[in-house]
Amino acid sequence: MIAHDTRPEPVSLLFNVSQLLKSEIGQSRSYEFAGKEALDLGDGTATDIHGHSKFTLTNFDILASISAAGRLHLTCARCLEPFTTPIEVQFDEEFVPSIDIQTGLPSGVPVSDVALPISPDHTIDLGEAIRQQFLLSMDLMPVCSPGCMGLCPTCGINRNTETCLCPSQEPANPFEVLKTLIQNTEQSQ
Ligand SMILES: [Zn+2]
Ligand SMILES: [Zn+2]
Fold this sequence. Notes:
This protein has helices spanning 18-22, 126-137, 174-188, and strands at 2-4, 14-16, 28-34, 39-40, 45-57, 62-75, 82-97, 115-118, 123-125. Strands 1, 3, 4, 5, 6, 7 and 8 form a seven-stranded mixed beta sheet that branches. A two-stranded antiparallel sheet has the order 2-9. The protein folds into two domains: 2-137, no CATH class; 151-189, no CATH class. By secondary structure, it is α+β, with helices and mostly antiparallel strands. It contains three helices and nine strands, in the order ββαβββββββαα. Bound molecules: zinc ion (2 copies). The site of one zinc ion (ZN) has 7 residues, from loops.
């Protein structure tokens, strides 16, 4: 059974699930969300986070099925210019109560590596779950476009917008790069 939330303007990634925790096992609730706040991703931020989540009460926790989209604000690993790119993720997340809603005492349910805690006031924070999922699906070396030419290694100009007369640094033989790498590794040992 799905009970749809009737709040007119859900603007937060925080959800109070005390009603769901008091209901019968197997009950679920679906919410739309749109976060006002930016999520800090370390090397960038995510804004315009929106999507929907279905929370289902199980024997010992709440299972959330989450679809989230947003915009990433990152720095190109080649040309070092800021750029934005859309992101979309779908994932399931377990949320474990820290307080038993019936007794008000610690729930004693261990929080596993894969689960996130429900706060003592019975609130689920989707922000942290979405932040982790964005980080997992982001490129380690994000580029502003697949054809980004990066910075000139000699003079440092952005080769996407300027040209320079520096001699090409591209090695004629790709094995030269490998040889240099090996030499550097040997030297640093
Ligand atoms: Zn770039
Ligand atoms: Zn140059």
